[in-house]
Design brief:
Structural class: mainly alpha
Helix content: over 70%
Shape: rod-shaped
Largest sheet: none
Number of helices: 2
Order of helices and strands: HH
Number of strands: 0
Strand content: under 5%
Radius of gyration: 27 Å
């Protein structure tokens, strides 16, 4: 066999291995970033649940009072505002995850 042909095949094989390892490396980076984002979303959902529980407890407290207007209560307003902020953060993280998972041309 010709030594030049073998050298060419070897270089070609090395280029394919380099390309494949770069592809795997980039894909793993994206996957780890997605896992981090999904973990953050789950944490925000947990916080949202705690806030909803706080609203429920406050509603029970107000049930026995004569002033039964829930939406005028400062505590409930604050908790609802925090939930709204968490939902905005979750939506931002979801859109970021969507952008990360898109395949580029």
């Amino acid at each position: 066999m010709n030594l030049i042909k073998i050298k060419g095949w070897f270089k070609s094989g090395l280029e394919r291995v380099k390309w494949f390892s770069l592809l795997i490396s980039e894909r793993l980076h994206v996957e780890f970033a997605l896992i981090k984002i999904l973990s953050d979303i789950e944490e925000l959902k947990r916080k949202k649940g705690e806030l909803a529980k706080g609203i429920g407890e406050r509603v029970i407290e107000l049930r026995d009072t004569s002033d039964y207007d829930l939406f005028s209560d400062a505590g409930i307003k604050r908790l609802l505002k925090e939930i709204e902020t968490l939902e905005e953060e979750m939506n931002a993280l979801k859109s970021k995850a969507g952008e990360l998972s898109k395949v580029e041309d």
